[in-house]
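TL;DR need structure tokens for one chain.
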Amino acid sequence: MAFQPYQASMLALGQAPSVIRETFEYGNRRAKEIGRENVFDFSLGNPSVPAPESVHDTMRRLMDETDSVLLHGYTSAVGAEPTRQAIADDINKRFQAGISAADIYMTCGAAASLTVTLHAILCPGDTCMTFAPFFPEYRVFVEAAGAKLTVVPADLDSFQMNLPAFEQLITPETKAVIINTPNNPTGVVFTEENIRKFCEILRAKEAEYGHPIYLLADEPYRELVYDAKTVVPYLTNLYDNTFVCYSFSKSLSLPGERIGYIVVSPKMKDNRLVYAAVCGSGRALGFVCAPSLAQRVVAENVGKTSDLSIYRKNRDLLYNSLTEYGYRCIYPDGAFYLWVQALEPDANAFCKKARDYELLLVPSDSFGCEGFIRIAYCVTTEMIERSLPAFKKLAESYR
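>> reply
TL;DR here they are.
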């Protein structure tokens, strides 16, 4: 066999352009040319509100009062027990889910939660499913675990889970399904009715196929819900074979700290064996011992959030304005994204034209759905206000 200096699939990933990152870098170049204030960059889902002051207070106190060797040293491979207990207590207080510290595995953010879980359960030949539109890295994570990703086409009217199409596409090779609510990229929150029907289908298919079908609930946006009537059920209460993959990146505005966790439902079949597989996967991927300082910080701030009212204000301003200008916008109950139908069939061409007005938008193709754009409104309200004339001019250019 000829010597290969690198794995071809990894090279392809490293060289593949990310439209989101390319747009962001384009914005940086334009900012140098015409000034940051003249560029309206809606490309990245990077929280724009600061972490709660209690997070900063906790960090300062820990740095001042805790022995440095202890503070920055290793925790248990699965995460510090006090942190896992604090998280379990908070989950149980809010959702009565019966979670224990022994069901929680601390991770380096939601990406690690997903990759560790997928590598723990997927085998060659397995299929994992998800619903369009979806976070593009799902495909990378699933295929890196040696499995195939099957994408359920979007319901272009409601952007709820397309359950009739799901029933047609699920097969005996289906090992897992990833759902994400509130959703990136649409901001849609799946209704409780939609989720309950989905879980009924999963249980029926488990019985038909004679094996578990795991549900991965990707929940970094769980707390980012802006209407009191909107409910995001805790999935372990509705479906036994559930993993919850969580990150504090959005709720506490800590994306750079890379801290999250996996919940392995206590009701899952062979719970302890599956949890051990999660531990083994974390070991194989090099994800043991999530950041120690971050673990201590979230343990003392679990259940708190940043000032989410700013995102709600941004949502209302952008949604109401763009709707007034004639755009079709899918109403976002949560997250911090607005999903807008492009004013021409080719979303990439529309985003290219938007650049003429210094609007940096993300086309929908990489999310598994054509003809839409994603606008990340986790930016300053002032920037949205300054961008509105540009959105209006862009709409007028198509009339």
